[in-house]
Amino acid sequence: MIKMLLSKDKWKFMLHTVSHPADGFYEIRHRERGSVLVALILVVLFSVVWSINRISASFVVNDVDPRMVNSISELITVLLFFFLICVSNWSITCLMDGKGRLKDIIIAIGYSTVPATVCILIGTLVSQFVSNDEAAFYTMICGIGIAYTLFMMLIGIMTVHNFTLGKTIITIFLTLVALLIIVFIILLLVDLINQVYSFLFSIYQELMFRA
To answer: How far apart are CA 17 and CA 100, in angstroms?
Structure first.
């Protein structure tokens, strides 16, 4: 099963989707051409490259102290943000008659990270050879990758849900709102759990003290 999900055809189709987003995302939705596992691997690769950039990019373009970078923590953060975005978009599009499934959203957003991953990696390598006056080349390379990633996400959401451009833009805005609401609820739950734990622990301490 895993071998089928990670077959050469799946990776070739991922590259096809990057070069032909509209056709690729249409086939993902209607012909089951994508792979959730490939999408998750791509998100992990993005996180790894992001950490490499923060650790290894030249001091000319990078003011981050490499000793302060925790790759594992950043990977967890990226994965949590990725899943929150996917769930938020799915919850909103369910209310707006979106045709895409959660699986399609995961694949679309996962595949969309490829341009940013490639360009940030190239930018990291280029940064080793640029001076202060040439730092704009680094910014341009990373900027192109991030811009194309955002473009792919827009096309991906629009295609898998069969939305118009205007409806897609509204959906993205509502997705961000839903994301903030979900994060707020999670923080409330965490705080409530901490308070309950503190209360029970104080009772336990009192009982032990009286005993």
So the answer is: 17
Query: Around 173, how many Cα atoms within 13 Å sit in the side-chain half-sphere?
Result: 6
DSSP state of 134: G
Helices (runs of H) and strands (runs of E) counted in the chain: 9, 0
Integer Cα distance of 128 and 131 in angstroms: 9
Length of the chain as a residue count: 211
Per-residue pLDDT tens over the stretch 20-52: 999 999 998 888 888 899 999 999 999 999 999
- 197 phi, psi to nearest 5 deg: -60, -45
115 with 140: CB under 8 angstroms?
A: no
User: What are 14-27's pLDDT values in tens digits?
Assistant: 999 999 999 999 99
Question: Does residue 6 register a pLDDT over 70?
Answer: no
- Could you tell me if 115 and 145 are in contact, meaning their C-beta atoms sit under 8 angstroms apart? yes
Q: How far apart are CA 158 and CA 25, in angstroms?
A: 9
> What 3-state DSSP class applies to 11?
helix
- How far apart CA 18 and CA 112 sit, in angstroms, is 7
- What single-letter amino acid sits at 5? L
From the list 150, 15, 94, the residue with the least C-alpha distance to 23 is 15
Alpha carbons 160 and 25: distance in angstroms, whole number: 6
